[in-house]
């Protein structure tokens, strides 16, 4: 144990006293601080846009006179953890507009927030990006000459001429190297948390801080992999220069090239080909034709009218404004405005609406299922690209952090799913008020529609346990990489030939 501790101390001191430690420390610290400053500024802008959108929506609700006008919106609140890992926060929709007769589709969702050209340059630069690139490279620079460099200097042969166990030497070099990287990782991450915490816009709770602690631990796992890669190659090669060239080549492939190639390959040659969008729209158009035919047949049979508007009884002449909206071919809204409404008997018309509008919503749900099937195929392709990317421990690290911070694709899909659930709440709300058959559905002449008790959308993030459960697979892969690389370096050094 004394020998191991001496090796750890020697490795730690030899790393800390080098210029690469100071340069690496400063570069990593400044890069992290800059990234957090930029992302905090952008988060404040997105949060302000979110609150403005909520206020505007509340003002819009107050202008609704009829139930037919209902158009609640599901707003995605900016995730404060996106300051550290932006993920899909800026690539997806921030708001989903709920229309009863229009299926929720991701392409129909709307984007709001940052349009600052300066910030867009740093769109992908966050703390995790800095760790993924800068810290990983620094770990390799610390490890590349641990064995091959000392072999060239002759110090390795001198050390092994003493009764120093080889297993203690390789373990001590690993622990000493990681101990010298530890203050760089922890200090940089802590400074980032402090900068984010002092912002008046951020409101970190205990759960958020625990998420960040887990991110820090996962980051240490990732840095350990990079250090072990350098250590393994240092054992396998004879000169430090060869080790460095080979290590940086592998680092470049795994951190920069691999994920882009995997994503491009799956996008170019998707194993699961989704239905062309035009065919999907055509299929939905045919679905709405079925709705009209079935609706008209039912109204004719049950009420004796060829069209709902014919059920309105009036004295004298009637003018009618009719508006049909298809929402890009995926929805079907019919808006009738008969005048003068105060002279009309609409009791039969209201009965028809009580049947027609829930029936229309059912068909909108059927159209949504068609769109979801198309989305699911695209999602399977994206999942395949992610699985292929997991060959790289760099991408595995990114996926693990995304799952922990709630900024990955699955979290975004969860927001879309919550918006769909909110639509069902809105439908249940109207059904509970018998709003579909109320005169206030289409006219406010005998009283305005009341929306004071309209359900409010609450975007729910994953809890810590849920986040850990989703990230468990990627964390396990990172642990496996650590074990494999350490055992590779350990076994290789036990068989190391000094001749």
Keywords, separated by commas or semicolons:
14 helices; 499 residues; 5% strand; two-stranded antiparallel ribbon; 65% helix; 6 strands; mainly alpha; two-stranded antiparallel sheet
Choose one word for the global shape. elongated
Based on secondary structure, the structural category is mainly alpha
Q: What is the β-strand count? A: 6
Q: On the 0-100 scale, what is the average pLDDT?
A: 88
**Residues in helices, as a percent range:** 55-70%
Rg: 31 Å
The rounded distance between the terminal residues' Cα atoms is 28 Å
Strand order of the largest sheet: 1-2
Describe what this molecule looks like in 3D:
- The chain is built from 14 helices and six strands.
- It is mostly helical.
- It has one domain.
- A two-stranded antiparallel ribbon has the order 1-2. Strands 3-6 form a two-stranded antiparallel sheet.
- The chain is elongated.
């Amino acid at each position: 144990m004394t020998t191991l501790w001496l090796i750890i101390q020697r490795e730690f001191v030899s790393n800390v006293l080098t210029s690469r430690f100071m340069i690496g420390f400063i570069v990593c610290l400044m890069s992290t601080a800059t990234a957090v400053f930029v992302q905090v500024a952008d988060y404040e802008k997105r949060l302000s846009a979110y609150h403005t959108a909520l206020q505007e929506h509340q003002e819009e609700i107050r202008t609704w006179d009829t139930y037919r006008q209902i158009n609640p919106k599901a707003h995605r609140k900016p995730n404060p953890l996106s300051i550290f890992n932006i993920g899909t926060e800026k690539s997806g929709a921030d708001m989903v507009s709920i229309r009863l007769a229009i299926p929720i589709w991701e392409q129909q969702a709307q984007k709001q927030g940052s349009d600052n050209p300066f910030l867009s340059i740093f769109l992908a630069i966050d703390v995790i990006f800095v760790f993924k690139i800068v810290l990983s490279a620094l770990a390799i620079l610390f490890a590349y000459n641990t064995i091959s460099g000392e072999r060239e200097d002759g110090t390795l042969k001198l050390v092994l001429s003493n009764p120093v166990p080889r297993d203690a030497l390789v373990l001590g070099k690993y622990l000493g190297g990681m101990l010298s990287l530890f203050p760089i990782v922890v200090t940089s991450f802590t400074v980032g948390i402090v900068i984010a915490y002092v912002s008046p816009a951020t409101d970190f709770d205990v759960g958020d801080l625990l998420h960040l602690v887990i991110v820090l631990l996962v980051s240490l796992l990732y840095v350990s992999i990079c250090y072990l890669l350098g250590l393994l190659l240092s054992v396998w090669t004879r000169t430090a220069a060869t080790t460095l060239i080979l290590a940086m080549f592998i680092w470049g492939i795994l951190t920069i090239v691999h994920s882009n190639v995997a994503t491009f390959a799956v996008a170019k040659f998707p194993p699961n080909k989704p239905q062309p969008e035009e065919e999907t729209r055509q299929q939905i158009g045919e679905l709405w034709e079925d709705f009209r035919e079935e609706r008209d047949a039912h109204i004719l049979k049950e009420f004796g009218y060829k069209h709902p508007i014919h059920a309105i009884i009036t004295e004298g002449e009637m003018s009618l404004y009719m508006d049909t909206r298809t929402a890009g071919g995926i929805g079907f809204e019919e808006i009738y405005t008969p005048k003068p409404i105060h002279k009309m008997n609409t009791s039969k018309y209201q009965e028809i609406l009580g049947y027609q509008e829930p029936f229309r919503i059912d068909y909108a749900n059927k159209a949504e299922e068609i769109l979801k099937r198309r989305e699911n195929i695209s999602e399977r392709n994206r999942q395949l690209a992610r699985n292929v990317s997991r060959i790289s421990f760099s991408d595995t690290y990114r996926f693990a952090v995304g799952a922990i911070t709630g900024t990955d694709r699955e979290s975004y899909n969860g927001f879309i799913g919550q918006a769909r659930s909110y639509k069902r709440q809105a439908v249940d709300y109207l059904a509970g008020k018998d709003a579909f058959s109320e005169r206030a559905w289409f006219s406010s002449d005998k009283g305005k529609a009341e929306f004071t008790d309209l359900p409010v959308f609450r975007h729910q993030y994953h809890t810590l346990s849920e986040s850990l459960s989703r990230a468990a697979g990627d964390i396990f892969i990172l642990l496996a990489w650590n074990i494999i690389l350490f055992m590779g370096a350990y076994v290789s050094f036990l068989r190391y030939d000094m001749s």
